[in-house]
Specification:
The protein is α+β, with helices and mostly antiparallel strands. Helices cover 23% and strands 28% of the residues. The strands form two sheets. The protein has a five-stranded antiparallel sheet. The protein is globular, with a radius of gyration of 17 Å. The chain binds nickel (II) ion.
Length: 191
């Protein structure tokens, strides 16, 4: 099943997501649906809140980036209850986008290297280091689980310049070929 993508301004994107227990209902199906949704929208990462589920899970598949770096070809993984334990290395800018913020791409500065613990789909525990593009994607998706969007990292002036565009996205002013959910309209408001 392909989930619609929740877009900028929706409260689910601002919540701190809850932990997933081992007996989480239909977990394997949920993971399969997350991958299907991500592929449908040509994403390389997708966090559960973007599918309207406020739980600690994101998926990554960098196969489409193999031209840039052959080591990215077979990286397909689900991260459950992840915890970034260390951030280190040089702080570098990288152009980021987000399925929940269509039409906006900006350079975001982040640490180049991270240590992260997480569980996979079988609840096997991992404690690993990542750098390069993977570290970048993982930090972006990890932020989603804590209610943080990439635009939050931008300088105040840049944020101000984007404000109208972001408000427009909340009102449906964008054009994508995947299904989306806009922030709910206020009760009693007439169209
Ligand atoms: Ni995103």
């Amino acid at each position: 099943m392909i989930f619609p993508i929740y877009v900028y301004g929706h409260p689910v994107l601002r919540k701190v997501a809850g932990n997933i227990e081992k007996d989480y209902k239909d977990l394997q199906q949920f993971i399969a649906d997350m991958f299907e949704t991500m592929y449908d929208s040509d994403g390389i990462g997708l966090a559960a809140p973007q599918a309207g589920k406020s739980v600690q899970l994101f998926v990554v598949d960098t196969t489409s980036l193999e031209d840039e770096d052959p080591s990215l070809k077979d990286f397909k993984r689900v991260f459950i209850n992840p915890l970034i334990l260390e951030r280190t290395g040089e702080i570098t800018p990288f152009n980021e986008g987000c399925l929940s913020i269509p039409g906006i791409r900006e350079d975001v500065s982040r640490e180049s290297k991270i240590r992260i613990s997480y569980y996979d789909k079988d609840f096997i525990f991992y404690d690993e280091w990542y750098d390069g593009i993977l570290s970048r994607i993982i930090q972006h998706e990890y932020n989603h689980l804590n209610g943080i969007l990439f635009t939050d990292h931008l300088a105040p002036l840049k944020k101000r310049l984007l404000r109208n565009k972001l408000n427009g996205i909340s009102k449906g002013k964008f054009d994508v070929d995947y299904k989306t959910v806009l922030p709910g309209k206020k009760k009693g408001r007439r169209e």
